[in-house]
Every structure is written in C-alpha cells, then in structure tokens.
Design brief:
An 8-stranded mixed sheet has the order 6-3-2-1-4-5-8-7. It contains 7 helices and 8 strands; from the N terminus they run E-E-E-H-E-H-H-E-H-H-H-E-H-E-E. The protein has one domain. With 219 residues, it is α/β, with parallel strands linked by helices. It is globular, with a radius of gyration of 16 Å. It has helices at residues 40-51, 74-84, 102-116, 131-136, 144-149, 154-166, 180-196; strands spanning 2-7, 18-25, 28-35, 56-61, 124-129, 169-170, 205-206, 217-218.
Amino acid sequence: MKVIGIDLAGPANHKDTVMSVFQASEDLLVFENAMDQASDEKIFTAIQAIAAKEHVVIGIDAPLSYQDGGGDRPQDKSIRQFIKTYGLSGSSIMPPTLTKMVYLTLRGIGITRRILSANHADHIHIVEVHPGAAIGTRIGSKKLHHALHYKKELESRIAIFNWFQSIGIMGIPNEFVETSHAIDSCAAALAAWHWGDMTKQPTWHWKESTDEHPFEFCS
C-alpha cells in the first residue's frame, strides 16, 4: 500500500504545496519520493500513475468540505477541543469559510472531486488530516514544544525529523527540515497511514461522512 501526504496551499500557491509518497511495510513507512511546488495537475497525474498499480491512501491537509451557512463543521469543533487536551492551540483549526481559509477549501474540494471522478477511484482512499495534531498528539509531553514551534523554528523541525525516524518513518531526505511544508507532508502521511492500516488507529477520528461532508477526518 502506498501512502501519500499532501500539505496543500491555496490555488495560487504551488510553491508551498508538498506531496510526499511512502510505501507502507508492516510497521514502517518508507519514503519513496516527493514533489514540491505541486500544481493540481502534477498531483492528479502522480496519483493516477500510482493508483493504476496499487491501492493508495492519501492524507490531505486542507478542508475538504464546508459548513452550509459558514462557520465550523462539527468535526472542526471536535478536533479543536481534542487537541486542546494535549496542550495544542485550538486556533490552528479554522472554519473552512474563513477569509484566509476559503481558497484552500476551494482547492481541497476541487482536487479531491477530480481525483475520485477519474480512473482508478476504487484504488484511492482519501482522508482529511491535521499534521500539527498528528505530531502533537503522538510526540509526548517532553517534546510538545517542538510541535508548537516547528512552523518557525529549525531546531524543532530537526527534532520532529528525528522523531519521525524513531517511530518508523524512514528515508525522509535531510533537506525536509528546511521547511515546515515538507514536515507537514510527512505528518499528513503518518495520520493517513494510521487511518488506512487496519492494524493501527489515529489519535482522533471523525468517522461520520455525509453527502455534505464526504470525507473522514483524522489526526
């Protein structure tokens, strides 16, 4: 099984969009390749090529639906309260229709619907993820400050990079510590792996899916 983590940025911001591809093998998640500055077309083409050969689980860091009328979805409220119990900031969970989020939501909705309406959709399994929560709910209290500061601090990204290897995420290139977007793509894959592998489980999981909110959400 292939596992893909995508740190998605807004439609005009390919520069900060990173997709990382891993092979799941028992208790290891082994890095294969990555794509930065990823456009929708590049992401779609890469996923189609993988899904033509085997099943793929994809974790996407972006809202993949929005609440009719605006504001939080039920899952946004749930994960916000959950991560606060770990000492994480609830402000990292923002309503999908918030002004600074709405273009990211648009891209997330657009690219997922395109993927699942194309060939090999039966081989593709998509889950919405929150990379910061995936890290912060697993890394432990002694290293929690790294989960809080890795967006801005190299030292914390290095600590998370080393922690990834300690939990079986292997082969990540050293240069991934240079940007939080690359780290987030790996954390997105971690959450998706624990969601898609029947021998594992996410730290938080919104299982309900509806026509309005068709994707599950996990950390």
